[in-house]
Design goal:
This protein is mainly alpha-helical and about 575 residues long. The protein has a 6-stranded mixed beta sheet with strand order 1-2-3-5-4-6, with helices on both faces. Helix 23 packs antiparallel against helix 24.
């Protein structure tokens, strides 16, 4: 049996340099009501009329034996309502949140529910109110922020246990220690589930009214980027409809999970939704190609001095690069006059987002090319002339800082960014070598084995022990269906004097590919050992950890089936 055929089941999670070699499945986000938008194939689906989430399945993947014929599956974007979020907001209103705020301009549903919550009585209600007082904040926006974070990461009723590992939780959720137990008691005492069921027709109506506007935003952005996203159980983009939040748009990004909380279909903030969705599409690229953007870092060091630059970006170069790229693409997608566009570029420069201008200028090259942004990104980065831009940025008069914005001000965007690991010391500070590595990675994504091999061999000729180049040659061997050669290369990278101990990404994925080869050879014990070794790599990518865990589970399942 072919190596690719034998191991196709293991490719549900893959590495950044080899996404095109995997098969995946679409899993609808857990929901009771809502709709999903399929971005990859540009399908605009009707809203589910029955009050049940519409589950979307991707077409079955082609046979794994001929990977060059694979087509990228689709990604589901979900617009939905959330019972945990509804219960959280009910408890918040019952606790006295916004008790002194006039409801004159509120929507009737929100005003009526606040009045109902304020009159609730019972031991659990009293406990919730005491908890809220103890964790109160002088800033109502900060208080709302914490509970919104909780509602987004809370698991299903009635327990509301967080769906993420504790170490991955946003600090706002950690500050609400013990709230899920109190919410569970409140939920059961006040029969919130029954109220939730009563509210579903109203929520369904809002979701259905939002469908066209949200679909158009996703359609245009995905079409421009020529994106055929690989679906992933780890990356999600969800719009939560919750009228109890009020006319505030809350954007939340925690790691690979992107969420927007909207009050309803009235006045959908198209710019905010598009901005968040573009982040979802583009944020992985600077992380994936960290060694490519490293050459442009001097521009970031200048920009970090800008008073108006978001504080969390001043020590996070990949996120800064992603923000500038998102803003550049937005200028292409928004309907603006030339004068408005020039003014926007000037504002970005003044605020410290100095890469927006050169990236915007480079986008016509992308528009005239064929690859998706995922594949074209390294070329887009290389088009930025650092010397020219440094001269320009050095003369920019950065704008002075504004007053500190209160979190109670209108819409807020809060981000728990996924920090990029520092560029491994194994990558040489050599522009030609970095360019060759990048070119090889792009050729791997295109499944052009010969061109990829030529690029990686250039690096090996100059740096004989360069682990990323050897790793690329291992991927070339997989594309060539050359199991023995792949086993030799990945074995070199995982043991002995040439082991990639200074490059966690290479080390972890080399263990995983070696495990898959052993599995294909009918050696499950050796495969298990390699998967276990991948899990012990300190600083290894989260995707690699997921792949190793899945490989162990699949191997254990096969053993169970094979037992007499």
């Amino acid at each position: 049996m072919d190596l690719f055929e034998k191991n196709a089941k293991h490719r549900a999670v893959s590495d950044p340099l080899n996404d095109s070699l995997r098969h995946t499945r679409v899993r609808s986000l857990p929901a009771k009501i809502g709709f999903s938008i399929i971005a990859g194939l540009f399908l605009l689906l009707p809203a589910a009329p029955s009050g049940r989430a519409q589950k979307v399945k991707s077409p079955p993947p082609p046979p794994a034996a001929r990977p060059q014929r694979e087509t990228a599956p689709t990604t589901s974007i979900t617009v939905d309502a959330s019972e945990p979020m509804f219960a959280t907001m009910c408890a918040l209103l019952a606790s006295g949140f916004e008790a002194n705020v006039s409801a004159e301009n509120w929507r009737p549903l929100r005003a009526q529910l606040r009045d109902r919550m304020q009159h609730q009585q019972g031991p659990a209600v009293q406990a919730i109110r005491e908890y809220y007082k103890q964790h109160d904040s002088a800033d109502p926006g900060a208080a709302l922020s914490r509970y919104l974070w909780f509602g987004l990461v809370a698991g299903p009723a009635p327990d509301f246990k967080p769906t993420m590992r504790r170490e991955d939780l946003p600090p706002e959720v950690l500050a609400l220690e013990g709230f899920n137990e109190l919410l569970s008691k409140y939920y059961q005492e006040q029969n919130i589930h029954q109220l939730w069921r009563q509210m579903q027709p109203a929520y369904n109506a809002e979701i259905e009214r939002m469908h066209e506007a949200v679909s158009q935003i996703v359609f245009v952005a995905t079409g421009y980027l020529r994106a055929m996203n690989q679906p992933s159980e780890q990356r999600t983009f969800t719009i939560i409809v919750e009228p109890l939040v009020g006319h505030i748009t809350n954007v939340r990004n925690f790691g690979d999970h992107y969420a927007i909380v909207l009050s309803g279909a009235e006045d959908i903030p198209a710019d905010v939704v598009r901005h968040a969705y573009l982040h979802f599409m583009l944020d992985p690229l600077p992380l994936r190609y960290s060694h490519v953007i490293a050459v442009k870092r001097p521009l970031f060091e200048k920009a970090a001095r800008a008073p108006r630059l978001a504080s969390d970006l001043k020590d996070d170069y990949p996120s800064f690069f992603a923000e500038c790229l998102v803003r550049a693409v937005e200028l292409k997608l928004r309907r603006m006059s030339p004068g408005e566009r020039d003014a926007a570029l000037e504002r970005n420069d003044a605020d410290g987002y100095v890469l927006v201008r050169p990236l915007f200028a480079a986008l016509p090259k992308f528009e005239g090319a064929e690859p998706s942004m995922e594949l074209f990104f390294p070329d887009l980065v290389r088009s930025v002339d650092v010397a020219t831009e440094l001269k320009r940025v050095s003369t920019l008069p950065f704008a002075s800082a504004d007053r500190q914005r209160s979190t109670s001000d209108l819409s807020v965007e809060e981000v728990a960014r996924r920090r990029a690991a520092a560029m491994p010391g194994t990558v040489p500070n050599d522009a030609d070598a970095i360019a060759a590595l990048t070119e090889g990675e792009r050729r791997i994504a295109e499944k052009n084995a010969r061109a990829a091999e030529a690029s990686f061999q250039k690096v090996v000729a100059k740096y004989p022990d360069q682990p990323r180049a050897w790793y690329g040659l291992g991927l070339v061997a997989l594309l060539d269906h050359d199991g023995p050669r792949a086993k030799e290369v990945f074995g070199r990278l995982t043991a002995g004097e040439h082991a990639a101990t200074s490059d966690p990404m290479v080390l972890a994925w080399s263990h995983i590919y070696l495990a898959r080869i052993y599995d294909g050879e009918g050696q499950p014990r050796q495969a298990e050992a390699e998967y276990q070794a991948a899990l012990t790599v300190e600083g290894g990518p989260e995707q690699a950890r997921q792949a190793a865990q899945k490989g162990l589970a699949d191997t254990a399942r096969e053993k169970s089936v094979e037992r007499p």
